[in-house]
Amino acid sequence: MARPTVAGNWKMNTSLAEAQSLASALKVSIGDMNGISRVLCPPFPYLTLVREAVAGSSIGISAQNMNYQEKGAFTGEVAPNMVAELCDYVILGHSERRALYGETDESVNLKVEAALKVGLKPIICVGETLAQREAGAAESIIEKQITKALDGVDKAGDLVVAYEPVWAIGTGVPATPELAAEIMEGVIQRCLISLYGEPAALEVPLLYGGSVTPDSVQGFVEQACIHGALVGGASLKIDDFTQIIKTVAKVKGVS
Ligand code: PGA
User: Fold this and answer.
1) Alpha helix (H) ranges present in the chain?
2) 5-251, which class in CATH?
3) Nearest-CA neighbor of 67 among 50, 90, 96, 89?
4) Domain residue spans in the chain?
5) 174 CA to middle of ligand 1, Å?
6) Structure pTM?
7) Ligand 1 atom nearest to CA at 231
8) pLDDT tens, 94-136?
9) CA 20 distance to own-chain centroid
10) Which residues line ligand 1 (CB under 6 A)?
């Protein structure tokens, strides 16, 4: 089975002091668990600080984005090697980056390849907008996003995929577990199986994201094809994020 995984996407939130105290508190509450990956995704300027705050625990660190080029005259950008020096994971293709910063399936693909090359685990985000869902295009959009993101990627080994319906992000209205499972098993896992075969495809952690809370997470991870969550707002609250991780661990039978 894929490893249960919960990542907290802090987005463009926290001050330096808040990042420090959030990470230190989470080191105590979730720093020492087995069988479940716990990942913090702070803003770039706090990566070093958060990494130091959780040192000695098994908490992983992720960036929220990166450039795919190695180095050069790209003012304001961050290269794969820079991220790899501080992080284990990198979130790629988040819908906010697709909608606001011109991220495309092609750029996500270049970033996925660059991340794998430097030993980072990409958390590849896919998801349809409300208009796409209402037009009956959700499945074809997700299939296109996942297939293009993985173009030329020959191994499933280090991949993580997050299904985040755009209409569920930050709205307080999550998808239903059944709807999420339909896409995650019926489209994402099916694509992974056709690319990498079983059992490799079934080892890829599939995360649900979009208004995940301590209350809603249980229903999602009770679905066999959902191995964890990508959490936004609730990952900024120590108690909520801790509870979400403990619920996922319990439902998946790990400690
Ligand atoms: P949310 O964000 O949990 O605040 O809806 C999820 C995400 O965008 O990763």
Assistant:
1) 16-30, 47-53, 80-86, 95-100, 105-117, 130-134, 138-149, 177-183, 190-196, 217-221, 238-251
2) alpha beta
3) 90
4) 5-251
5) 10
6) 0.98
7) 3
8) 999 999 999 999 999 999 999 999 999 999 999 999 999 999 9
9) 21
10) 9, 164, 169-170, 209-212, 230-234
